[in-house]
Amino acid sequence: MPIAVLLHTEGVHEHPGGEAAVTSSHPYTPKEQLKKHTALADIVVSAAGIPNLITANMIKEGAAVIDVGINRIQDPITAKPKLVGDVDFEGVRKKAGYITPVPGGCWSHDSDNANEEYHYCCKKSAEA
Q1: Total domain count for the chain?
Q2: CATH number at residue 19
Q3: Do 85 and 71 contact (CB within 8 A), yes or no?
Q4: What is d(CA 19, CA 10) in angstroms, rounded to the nearest whole number?
Q5: How many angstroms separate the CA atoms of 42 and 115, rounded?
Q6: Which stretches of 54-107 are assigned E, i.e. beta strand?
């Protein structure tokens, strides 16, 4: 089940959800328009496939940031390939209440546990 549906559904279904107001964007959403949405969001889930698309100035203080993006780039220092997410991890981690790293965050679990990841992130965000 897509995470947007899990966030939006009521808590009475087979897969209980968050009853959240969900805003979906895509890779062609202008960055300033995207920033208007992410700056208001309690939870940001990014899976656009664009390295460092989400930066600290786009995130609300204390928000939970779930980075699902997997991007292979060339490390500017070592010139070796490395994996990064859609979120500028180093910048956003100073502002977010919770953030998943790439690699090792969402993809450290199998996809059947996406619902657990969502609930864990919500819990961490509430604790922040």
Answers
A1: 1
A2: 3.40.50.720
A3: yes
A4: 5
A5: 17
A6: 64-67, 71-74, 81-84, 98-99
- Which residue segment(s) compose the domain that 115 sits in? 3-127
Interatomic CA distance for residues 59 and 54, integer angstroms: 8
Tokens (6 digits) for 20: 């959240």
Beta-strand pair 71-74/64-67? unpaired
pTM above 0.70, yes or no: yes
Q: How far apart are CA 93 and CA 72, in angstroms?
A: 20
Residues 44-53: tens digit of each pLDDT? 999 888 999 9
Q: Is the distance from CB of 35 to CB of 56 less than 8 angstroms?
A: no
CA distance 32 to 25: 12
